[in-house]
């Protein structure tokens, strides 16, 4: 016969232990969910999605009676959905570019777990957002969900090119002023180079004249000195005077 009294204590211990673990697990999940809900979102508010939902949930009867506006046409809704898909592409590309760097920082301990939880929550939200956009596109036209993101990507590239063109146009006046100033400085340098050879040519023309005058004056002085020296030698030479005296005595 089984002794239930001896088994009551272990069973009670197991029951208390399982109850405590269940309570702790429930409290931990609730605390974690509250903490995740209190975390700051990874991206700011999705304005394009809010605009699309606002257009979708407008009541046509309320529009016509109170605001006296026509119903929202389908083309406007499609354009709003395309804008929503364009913003989704931007956010998905941002998540893909940031995931690898964030995982490396998390492994090194440079960032906390809260930041990684924010990133995972943003990634899950974007997955649901993409699925919702595909479903909405297929509701407007069959198989449009397969090509809507391709059209949105072309729109995004067009917006980027237009923004770059606007930036270049805004810098056009500044660039023109810079190049005009540089052109003026280059022209001034050329004019200085043209003026410098004329001055050097005038100086070179004056230099030969000064050299000619100095050379012409120097030989005259040398010729006078040579004449004086020749006369002095002729007077002081004894041979010439003795020969003349002997000749006179013979005569």
UniProtKB/TrEMBL annotation:
Compositionally skewed regions (Low complexity) per UniProt: 202-221
Family matches, as InterPro entries: Sec66
Spans through the membrane: 6-28
UniProt keyword annotation of Secreted present: no
Biased composition (Basic residues): 242-251
Superkingdom as given in the UniProt entry: Eukaryota
Protein name: Translocation protein sec66
Lineage of the organism: Eukaryota, Fungi, Dikarya, Ascomycota, Pezizomycotina
């Amino acid at each position: 016969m089984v002794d239930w009294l001896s088994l009551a204590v272990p069973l009670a211990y197991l029951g208390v232990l399982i109850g405590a673990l269940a309570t702790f697990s429930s409290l931990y999940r609730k605390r974690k969910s509250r903490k995740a809900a209190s975390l700051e979102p990874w991206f700011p508010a999705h304005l394009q999605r809010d605009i699309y939902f606002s257009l979708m949930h407008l009541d046509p009867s309320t529009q016509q009676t109170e605001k006296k506006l026509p119903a929202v046409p389908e083309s406007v809704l499609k354009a709003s959905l395309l804008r929503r898909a364009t913003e989704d592409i931007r956010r998905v590309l941002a998540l893909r570019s940031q995931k690898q760097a964030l995982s490396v920082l998390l492994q090194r301990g440079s960032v906390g777990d809260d930041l990684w939880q924010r990133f995972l929550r943003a990634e899950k939200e974007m997955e649901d957002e993409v699925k919702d956009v595909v479903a909405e596109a297929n509701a407007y036209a069959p198989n449009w969900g397969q090509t809507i993101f391709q059209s949105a990507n072309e729109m995004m590239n067009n917006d980027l090119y237009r923004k770059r063109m606007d930036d270049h146009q805004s810098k056009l006046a500044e660039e023109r002023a810079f190049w005009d100033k540089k052109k003026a400085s280059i022209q001034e340098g050329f004019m200085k180079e043209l003026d410098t050879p004329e001055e050097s040519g005038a100086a070179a023309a004056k230099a030969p004249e000064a050299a000619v005058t100095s050379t012409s004056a120097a030989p005259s002085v040398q010729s006078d000195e040579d004449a004086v020296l020749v006369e002095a030698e002729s007077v002081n030479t004894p041979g010439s005077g003795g020969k003349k005296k002997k000749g006179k005595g013979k005569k």
